[in-house]
Amino acid sequence: MGHFSSMFNGLARFSLRKGRNSGNEEGREIAAELAKEAKKNDLLLSSSGCVNVNGSRNFASVFSKRGEKGVNQDCFIVWEEFGCQADMIFCGIFDGHGPWGHFVAKKVQESMPSSLLYNWQQTLAQTSLDEDMDLESDKKYRRLNVWKQSYMKACAAVDKELEQHRKIDSFCSGTTALTIVRQGELIYIANVGDSRAVLATTLDDGSLVPVQLTVDFKPNLPQEAERITQCNGRVFCLDDEPGVHRVWLPHKESPGLAMSRAFGDYCVKDFGLISVPEVTQRHITSKDQFVVLATDGVWDVISNQEAVQIVSSTPDQAKSAKRLVECAARAWKRKRRGIAMDDISAICLFFHSSTLLHQVHSAVTAK
């Protein structure tokens, strides 16, 4: 891994020396090579399974189930030692929609990590992080700012690249993107769309409770609806879908998007739909046990509390995502009879050893 690590460390210096355009192209190529190397070394997962690297504090369980609408348009990625950084892991989950949604989701899944890596390294090279700063809060703020800038640039680049892709028609198709990066004891969450990240943390009495880390970017949220209407887009529900707000063109009843942020969907990008991520951070403590990233196929039928309970009560962590997805599939049959089940996907990222989590679960069940 040494060769690739040295290449990565020189990314920003190379880009600044060679010039902006050539540097970006070369930097993305190097980042893509890092992804190939990670996959070869079982550090990168993009199919159902688990990632458990010796010596790592992270354990990731991943599972996806095709719905009843055709091809599975969900996809995901878990990359341990993200960019050859021993203390980093990247997780992303993508929910495609529209005729070409599965191609769009796959493309964003492939492009996002390398684009983020390149932009993070470039932003670091241009930002001074003084480790001797007195206030730890200042350090956290500046690190968050680096990741925010990196994500903003990466998402803009990915969306532009997608629009120019000759073999993928994303005019009326798109994807959401929910990703997190764990760097040491901090996690950075970036959300575009209506997938959701939920953290499981323990209270002083030992009970395990959910903390929602993201906003479901639905069109009826006040600031989202305001932006869309100011851009002459429309937000309303169909008569046969009360409560399901969608985004529509000014003078045409299409495309009817159920989210207000997404990659692709260029037919409504001039009418309020954006691919700008909301980026936040959280400091992980010994009380925080795991985080669940899941597409709306889970959250449409499973509450945050139910998800935390299902995952924490699964004896084998490797099967936690599968159990959550299967519980959601059964809930669809009970709660949404007559409605075609959506694709359902989840990533469960554990922060500590399984022993600690089982101790927490035992304390909860004993009460």
Automatic annotation (TrEMBL):
Does Glycosyltransferase appear among the keywords?
no
> Which top-level group of life is the source organism from?
Eukaryota
EC number assigned by the record? 3.1.3.16
Top-level class of the enzyme under EC nomenclature: hydrolase
Top-down, what is the taxonomic lineage of the species of origin? Eukaryota, Viridiplantae, Streptophyta, Embryophyta, Tracheophyta
Pfam families according to UniProt:
PP2C (PF00481)
SMART domains attached to this UniProt entry: PP2Cc
Molecular function in Gene Ontology = metal ion binding; protein serine/threonine phosphatase activity
List, separated by semicolons, the cofactors it needs.
Mg(2+); Mn(2+)
**Reactions it catalyzes:** O-phospho-L-threonyl-[protein] + H2O = L-threonyl-[protein] + phosphate; O-phospho-L-seryl-[protein] + H2O = L-seryl-[protein] + phosphate
Q: Which Gene3D superfamilies match?
A: PPM-type phosphatase domain
GO biological process, alphabetically ordered: negative regulation of growth; response to water deprivation
Q: Where is the PPM-type phosphatase domain?
A: 59-351
Q: What is this protein called?
A: protein-serine/threonine phosphatase
Similarity section: Belongs to the PP2C family.
- Alphabetical keyword list: Hydrolase, Magnesium, Manganese, Metal-binding, Protein phosphatase
